[in-house]
Design goal:
The protein is mainly α. It folds into five domains: 2-24 and 353-417; 57-114 and 260-351, Rossmann fold (3-Layer(aba) Sandwich); 137-257, no CATH class; 431-631, no CATH class; 678-889. It is built from 40 helices and eleven strands. The strands form three sheets. A six-stranded parallel sheet has the order 3-4-5-2-7-6, sandwiched between helices. The protein has a three-stranded antiparallel sheet with strand order 1-8-9. Strands 10-11 form a two-stranded antiparallel ribbon. Strand 10 and strand 11 (483-485) form a beta hairpin. It is elongated and about 125 Å long.
Length: 893
């Protein structure tokens, strides 16, 4: 209704557009409500159910909790309407399966101020609803209520209170009359007609005496076991909180034709919270004492009644008292959840709307001539910014109307914003300490209690624990850091320019500095005990973004983490958001760009990598050690692009510095010597490389080039074992691919197994070059079989797109082996000619020699190639491998 009125007064033309109800399906929540109600009806209809049993566990409460604005109140209003007549129930919800008469009673606790009068309001609301539904007295309760009223509100008619308190409705005038009728019934039952008009206290005394004397008519009318004791107690607020027991008993005594099952919906339950839980204690007593009533509670936080720590603050606590309310049973309902008979989970986190639901919501909200008034582009912009929060959608609709009222047509850019009202809702029930923590953790993508505490600059974790229990913080217990802030709330906090206690730029900078230090502290401590790749990447992702976005200095741990990240060639994506400036202008910017470029090279053309690294180097912003890293990876990109002179210059520059990457640079120089055909120089470098220079891999590459499969396999196996000892998954996979390459020429059966292991080790490492090389190996393994040429053509396209021209040489060498095995002389000759052209620059100049040797093609040795043995011995080795493959395939020579 509020939306309709707001729209009506936003234009001079009341018929300009229609405001349609846009309640989003929430089918999953309705499934839970229906299941809980069905279970409740079965339980209270059971012969073993006893409304006076005060020791049995309670299963008559269902909780929906979630961040402010997620749609809890809307859901409860819709459930109320659906249970009332069913006319407003969405078609997707389906028809109810029960036949019993159900009475929904929704009570909004948002007006509560934790005073006794508010509990009176709750009790009177329930009794007023029953007055209209039943049209009859509930004598046991009515006598007690009248006795309470005359004692606590002497001289104030109940009718006047109902009118003044805002409870007046179409049944308001029925309650006083029913209370008088109830007194009359009791007086008649006691055969004391003179008491009808007397004070309730006199009637109460007479009723108590009759009950104590076990008078049959009195017991039939008000014979709950504890009625007399309740009526004898001083009629104050404490006594009133126990009177619902009498109301439950009265309901249980109704004739079958008059019976009704109340469903009480307590909305905005968070408003009951106070330090002493006084109002909550009264409400819990209401729920416990009315086990034949189903209570559906909506609030921001999970109901804690099953927490034993609340013992003494509430009357009934612990999981034994409230099965289903324990934390382990809480679930998030964004889709319908499966259930088993007799077991419905009792606490449910209301999740955000899906993009499809957001779109439907916005399309239906404002309609003009049967078409959505908000166009698709604006709907997309609002949906993306809302992160599924219904409150954001409603605020965006209001903004849309506001812009139209100015005479301007709204644009998608108008909705790339957050709303102060959304943040105000989120902050409204947080303490000052929790608000400080909220702003602090908004800097983090995810956090744990320790990280949140350090980022906020606090010395104790209690405030972080309290904040983590709020619905605006989502928990994933299986994540590295289990908590993350709701994305819409996070955006609103970061964009806050209106709150009284909003942070200054200096406040944000200090918090970011603390967050960066806290991340570094976690990673450093973990690395000293049990290094974790997952933690490393997670710390880098958050740390780099913080350092870049807040221009932080003190990048020490980030430098160490950067080297650890690149050491193993795993290349998990760092996935940093797009920078706000087109080029780095701080050291943190440069570091973020450097690592992003190195990781992205697995998905970009190598020329793009070389250009980006050159741009970072040109800024001069990189710390000295990371300048070495940029030089090294630019040299690697040049090598992959077959720009050997530039690669050699870069590798030599890094090697000469003697820094952390010097061993890798020396390996790069050895590999460049091998690529140039200078095998003696490459071999001489192997003893100087060690593990850091991956000496076994370099040696294996030398041996397979000489067709010395046994020596190559031994070297690669030693390299793989060494990588396993160092826990280097990237190097292990890389070495395994090369082992499969060496075996693929000599033993296709073993190559099948080695290649399978290579793919297994590559899985999840994001090594594009080695993944493509493994596909080349698969072709070599199948050399001589049909279909190899077609597969090679497809693979050639993938290699070109990756910007890895050196792999084309391997692909052509594999094709040469295939043609030689098949005895296809013309195809082999054409392949050798292509290799001549591809190696004209000097790199891989020995590949044409190897290809020619495979097919017995006579050609003079390349003048730039220096083999470890004679040229003839190498030719014979490769020719032997071709002959063996033919024998394997029974292919004639």
């Amino acid at each position: 209704m509020a939306d309709k009125l707001r729209a009506l007064f936003s234009s001079n033309d009341p018929s300009a557009f229609d405001v349609a109800e846009a309640f989003t399906d929430r089918h999953g929540q309705w499934v839970v409500v229906a299941a809980a109600l069905e279970e409740h009806l079965r339980r209270i209809a059971s012969g073993s159910f006893d409304v006076e049993d005060l020791e049995a566990p309670r299963r008559n409460v269902l909780v929906f909790h979630g961040v402010g604005g997620v749609g809890k109140s809307t859901l409860l209003r819709k459930v109320e309407a659906a249970l009332t007549t069913g006319e407003h129930r969405p078609e997707q919800w389906g028809a109810p399966t029960w036949t019993e008469r159900v009475l929904p009673i929704r009570i909004d606790l948002s007006r509560a101020a934790s005073t006794g009068s508010d509990f009176e309001r709750v009790i009177l609301t329930i009794r007023l609803a029953l007055a209209g539904a039943l049209g009859r007295t509930l004598p046991s309760f009515d006598v007690a209520l009248r006795h309470y009223w005359e004692h606590v509100h002497p001289g104030e008619p109940l009718e006047e209170y109902v009118r003044r308190s805002g409870l007046a409705g179409r049944f308001a005038n029925m309650l006083p009359g029913q209370l008088r009728a109830g007194v009359g019934e009791v007086a008649a039952a006691l055969a004391l007609p003179g008491l009808v008009g007397s004070a309730a206290g006199q009637l109460t005394s007479a009723l108590v005496q009759a009950l104590r004397e076990r008078q049959e008519r009195a017991q039939a009318l008000a014979g709950a076991t504890r009625t007399a004791a309740l009526l004898e107690a001083t009629p104050d607020l404490e006594a009133l909180s126990y009177y619902p027991h009498l109301l439950a008993w009265d309901l249980s005594r109704l004739p079958a034709k008059k019976s009704v099952v109340p469903v009480v919906l307590l909305d905005t339950f968070e408003e009951t919270a106070d330090r002493h839980r006084d109002f909550e204690r009264l409400l819990q007593r209401l729920v416990w004492l009315m086990p034949n009533v189903l209570f559906i509670i909506g609030g921001r936080s999970r109901l804690q009644w099953a927490d034993p720590a609340l013992h003494g603050q509430l009357d009934w606590t612990g999981p034994a008292a409230w099965p289903g309310l324990a934390a382990a049973s809480a679930s998030s309902l964004t889709v319908p959840q499966p259930r088993t008979a007799g077991s419905v989970a009792r606490q449910h986190l209301i999740g955000d709307l899906s993009p499809e639901d957001c779109e439907a919501h916005l399309a239906r909200r404002l309609v003009q001539d049967g078409q959505p008034l908000i166009n698709a582009d604006i709907r997309d912009a609002i949906t993306a910014r809302s992160h599924g929060l219904p409150l954001h959608l409603d605020l965006a609709v209001s903004r849309f109307l506001e812009i139209r009222r100015t005479g301007r047509t709204p644009l998608p850019a108008d909705f790339d914003c957050t709303f102060p009202a959304l943040l105000a809702r989120a902050l409204s029930d947080l303490t000052a300490e929790e608000r400080h923590l909220l702003r602090s953790v908004s800097l983090l993508d995810a956090f744990d209690l320790d990280l949140a505490t350090q980022t906020a600059g606090l010395t104790h974790q209690a405030p972080a624990r309290r904040l983590a229990e709020r619905p605006l913080v989502t928990e994933n217990p299986y994540a590295l850091w289990p908590y993350h802030l709701h994305r819409a709330i996070r955006s609103a906090v970061r964009d806050d320019e209106h709150s009284d206690d909003r942070w200054t730029a200096a406040d944000w900078h200090q918090a970011a500095t603390r967050a960066l230090a806290a991340l570094g502290d976690q990673w450093t401590k973990a690395a000293a005990l049990a290094p974790s790749r997952i933690l490393l990447v997670a710390c880098l992702r958050q740390g780099l973004r913080l350092a870049r976005d807040h221009s932080l200095t003190g990048l020490g741990w980030l430098i160490d983490a950067a080297f650890t990240y690149t050491d193993d060639s795993v290349w998990e994506p760092l996935a940093l958001p797009t920078p706000t400036t087109p080029a780095p202008d701080t050291p943190a910017d440069a570091v973020a760009e450097l690592l992003t470029t190195i990781a992205r090279r697995q998905h970009e053309h190598r020329q793009r990598t070389a250009d980006r690294l050159a741009a970072v180097l040109d800024t001069g912003l990189l710390p000295g050690e990371l300048t070495e890293m940029a030089l090294y990876y630019r040299a690697k990109a040049h090598k992959d692009l077959s720009q050997s002179d530039a690669a050699r210059t870069g590798m030599q520059q890094v090697a000469d510095t003697g820094g952390r990457l010097a061993p890798k640079a020396r390996r790069g120089l050895a590999n460049l010597a091998r690529l140039a055909g200078d095998f003696p120089t490459a071999l001489a470098a192997v003893p100087t490389l060690g593990w850091e220079g991956r000496h076994h891999r370099v040696l294996g590459d030398i041996h397979w080039s000489h067709a010395d499969t046994a020596a190559a396999v031994a070297a690669f196996e030693a390299g793989r074992a060494e990588a396993e000892q160092h826990g280097a998954a990237g190097e292990r996979a890389m070495t395994q691919v090369r082992l499969a390459l060496a075996v693929s020429f000599a033993d296709p059966a073993r190559a099948e197994d080695e290649l399978a292991l290579a793919h297994q080790l590559l899985d999840g490492l994001d090594q594009r070059a080695n993944t493509l090389l493994a596909q080349v190996v698969a072709l070599i393994k199948d050399a001589g079989s049909p279909g190899v040429t077609d597969r090679a053509q497809n693979l050639r396209t993938d290699i070109d797109n990756a910007g890895l021209p050196y792999l084309i040489r391997f692909l052509e060498l594999g094709l040469a082996f295939h043609h030689a095995v098949r005895g296809a002389g013309d195809d082999l000759g054409a392949t050798v000619e292509r290799l001549n052209g591809l190696t004209a620059g000097g790199d891989f100049a020995y590949f044409p020699d190897i290809a020619a040797a495979m097919g017995g093609i006579s050609r003079p040795p390349s003048p730039h190639v220096r083999w470890l043995t004679s040229h003839g011995a190498v030719q014979e080795g490769w020719r032997t491998l071709v002959t063996a493959r033919r024998a394997h395939l029974n292919t004639p020579s």
